[in-house]
Amino acid sequence: MLRNKVLLFLLISFVFTSCDPNRVFDEYQSVPNKWHKDSVVRFSVKVPDSTKAYNLFVNLRNTNAYKYNNLFLIVEMAFPHGKTIKDTLEYKMADPSGKLLGTGLTDIKENKLWYKEGVVFKEKGEYVVKIQHAMRENGKVNGVIALEGVTDVGFRIERPIK
Predict the structure, then answer these.
(1) Residue span of the structural domain in which 46 resides
(2) With a cut of 50, which residues of the chain have pLDDT below it?
(3) Residue 6 forms part of a structural domain
Protein backbone atom coordinates (compact mmCIF):
# COMPACT_ATOMS: atom_id res chain seq x y z
CA MET A 1 0.00 0.00 0.00
CA LEU A 2 2.77 2.45 0.93
CA ARG A 3 4.65 1.51 -2.23
CA ASN A 4 1.57 2.32 -4.36
CA LYS A 5 1.23 5.73 -2.71
CA VAL A 6 4.89 6.52 -3.31
CA LEU A 7 4.60 5.48 -6.97
CA LEU A 8 1.46 7.59 -7.40
CA PHE A 9 3.19 10.60 -5.83
CA LEU A 10 6.22 10.18 -8.11
CA LEU A 11 4.00 9.87 -11.17
CA ILE A 12 2.01 13.00 -10.29
CA SER A 13 5.23 14.91 -9.55
CA PHE A 14 6.68 13.85 -12.89
CA VAL A 15 3.57 14.93 -14.78
CA PHE A 16 3.48 18.37 -13.18
CA THR A 17 7.18 19.07 -13.60
CA SER A 18 7.39 17.80 -17.15
CA CYS A 19 4.45 19.84 -18.44
CA ASP A 20 6.49 23.01 -18.72
CA PRO A 21 9.70 22.37 -20.68
CA ASN A 22 10.56 26.10 -20.95
CA ARG A 23 10.69 26.66 -17.19
CA VAL A 24 14.15 27.17 -15.69
CA PHE A 25 13.11 28.86 -12.42
CA ASP A 26 9.61 29.48 -11.08
CA GLU A 27 9.03 30.40 -7.47
CA TYR A 28 6.36 32.28 -5.51
CA GLN A 29 6.29 33.92 -2.11
CA SER A 30 3.08 34.63 -0.24
CA VAL A 31 2.14 38.14 0.76
CA PRO A 32 0.32 38.02 4.10
CA ASN A 33 -2.89 40.08 4.16
CA LYS A 34 -1.59 43.27 2.51
CA TRP A 35 1.68 43.95 0.67
CA HIS A 36 3.43 46.63 2.72
CA LYS A 37 5.37 49.22 0.70
CA ASP A 38 8.58 48.38 2.57
CA SER A 39 8.18 44.62 2.14
CA VAL A 40 10.66 43.33 -0.42
CA VAL A 41 10.11 39.90 -1.96
CA ARG A 42 13.47 38.24 -2.63
CA PHE A 43 14.50 35.38 -4.91
CA SER A 44 17.93 33.75 -5.15
CA VAL A 45 18.63 32.22 -8.55
CA LYS A 46 21.46 30.12 -9.95
CA VAL A 47 21.10 29.95 -13.73
CA PRO A 48 22.30 26.62 -15.13
CA ASP A 49 23.76 27.83 -18.45
CA SER A 50 25.63 31.11 -18.80
CA THR A 51 25.64 30.97 -22.62
CA LYS A 52 21.90 30.84 -23.34
CA ALA A 53 19.34 33.63 -23.46
CA TYR A 54 16.32 33.57 -21.16
CA ASN A 55 13.06 35.48 -20.75
CA LEU A 56 12.26 36.85 -17.30
CA PHE A 57 8.83 37.39 -15.77
CA VAL A 58 7.27 38.72 -12.59
CA ASN A 59 4.31 36.55 -11.64
CA LEU A 60 1.53 37.93 -9.53
CA ARG A 61 -1.59 36.44 -7.99
CA ASN A 62 -4.29 38.85 -6.93
CA THR A 63 -7.89 38.76 -5.79
CA ASN A 64 -10.88 40.98 -6.54
CA ALA A 65 -9.78 43.11 -3.58
CA TYR A 66 -7.12 44.62 -5.88
CA LYS A 67 -8.69 48.00 -6.68
CA TYR A 68 -6.29 49.56 -9.18
CA ASN A 69 -6.11 49.43 -12.97
CA ASN A 70 -2.34 49.27 -12.98
CA LEU A 71 0.61 48.17 -10.87
CA PHE A 72 3.98 49.84 -10.36
CA LEU A 73 6.87 47.61 -9.28
CA ILE A 74 10.51 48.21 -8.50
CA VAL A 75 12.54 45.19 -9.59
CA GLU A 76 16.20 44.99 -8.69
CA MET A 77 18.62 42.33 -9.90
CA ALA A 78 21.98 41.89 -8.17
CA PHE A 79 24.64 40.06 -10.16
CA PRO A 80 27.10 37.63 -8.52
CA HIS A 81 30.04 40.06 -8.81
CA GLY A 82 28.28 43.11 -7.36
CA LYS A 83 26.62 44.89 -10.30
CA THR A 84 22.98 45.84 -9.70
CA ILE A 85 20.27 46.95 -12.10
CA LYS A 86 17.03 48.52 -10.90
CA ASP A 87 13.89 49.07 -12.96
CA THR A 88 10.60 50.78 -12.22
CA LEU A 89 7.90 48.96 -14.16
CA GLU A 90 4.22 49.59 -14.84
CA TYR A 91 1.75 46.84 -15.68
CA LYS A 92 -1.88 47.00 -16.74
CA MET A 93 -3.99 44.98 -14.29
CA ALA A 94 -7.55 45.71 -15.47
CA ASP A 95 -9.36 46.47 -18.71
CA PRO A 96 -11.15 49.84 -19.24
CA SER A 97 -14.33 48.49 -17.63
CA GLY A 98 -12.41 47.62 -14.46
CA LYS A 99 -12.42 43.85 -14.97
CA LEU A 100 -9.19 42.36 -13.66
CA LEU A 101 -6.86 40.82 -16.21
CA GLY A 102 -5.08 37.51 -15.76
CA THR A 103 -6.00 33.86 -15.86
CA GLY A 104 -8.12 31.93 -13.40
CA LEU A 105 -11.74 30.92 -13.01
CA THR A 106 -12.09 31.93 -9.37
CA ASP A 107 -11.61 35.36 -7.80
CA ILE A 108 -7.84 34.73 -7.80
CA LYS A 109 -6.18 35.90 -11.01
CA GLU A 110 -2.69 34.96 -12.08
CA ASN A 111 -0.66 37.44 -14.12
CA LYS A 112 2.55 36.64 -15.99
CA LEU A 113 4.21 40.03 -16.46
CA TRP A 114 7.17 40.55 -18.82
CA TYR A 115 10.31 41.77 -17.09
CA LYS A 116 13.18 41.24 -19.56
CA GLU A 117 13.62 39.39 -22.84
CA GLY A 118 16.69 37.58 -24.18
CA VAL A 119 18.81 37.92 -21.03
CA VAL A 120 22.15 36.12 -20.98
CA PHE A 121 23.46 35.52 -17.46
CA LYS A 122 27.16 35.87 -18.25
CA GLU A 123 28.38 35.75 -14.65
CA LYS A 124 28.36 32.38 -12.91
CA GLY A 125 26.99 32.32 -9.40
CA GLU A 126 23.91 33.47 -7.53
CA TYR A 127 21.70 36.29 -8.80
CA VAL A 128 19.34 37.97 -6.34
CA VAL A 129 16.07 39.48 -7.56
CA LYS A 130 14.14 41.83 -5.27
CA ILE A 131 10.59 42.99 -5.99
CA GLN A 132 8.53 45.62 -4.17
CA HIS A 133 5.48 47.62 -5.11
CA ALA A 134 5.63 51.37 -5.74
CA MET A 135 1.92 52.21 -5.93
CA ARG A 136 0.58 55.72 -5.49
CA GLU A 137 -2.93 57.05 -5.75
CA ASN A 138 -3.63 59.86 -8.22
CA GLY A 139 -2.99 63.28 -6.74
CA LYS A 140 -1.21 61.94 -3.65
CA VAL A 141 2.50 62.27 -2.96
CA ASN A 142 2.87 59.45 -0.46
CA GLY A 143 2.71 55.89 -1.71
CA VAL A 144 0.12 53.26 -0.86
CA ILE A 145 1.30 51.88 2.49
CA ALA A 146 -0.49 48.51 2.31
CA LEU A 147 -1.52 47.20 -1.09
CA GLU A 148 -4.64 45.05 -0.82
CA GLY A 149 -5.51 42.13 -3.06
CA VAL A 150 -2.05 40.78 -3.86
CA THR A 151 -1.65 37.24 -2.47
CA ASP A 152 1.59 35.98 -4.05
CA VAL A 153 4.57 37.44 -5.88
CA GLY A 154 6.71 35.24 -8.09
CA PHE A 155 9.70 35.30 -10.36
CA ARG A 156 10.11 33.10 -13.42
CA ILE A 157 12.91 32.38 -15.86
CA GLU A 158 12.07 30.62 -19.15
CA ARG A 159 13.92 29.35 -22.15
CA PRO A 160 12.65 31.26 -25.18
CA ILE A 161 10.01 29.40 -27.19
CA LYS A 162 11.48 28.18 -30.43
Answers:
(1) 22-158
(2) 6, 8-11, 13
(3) no
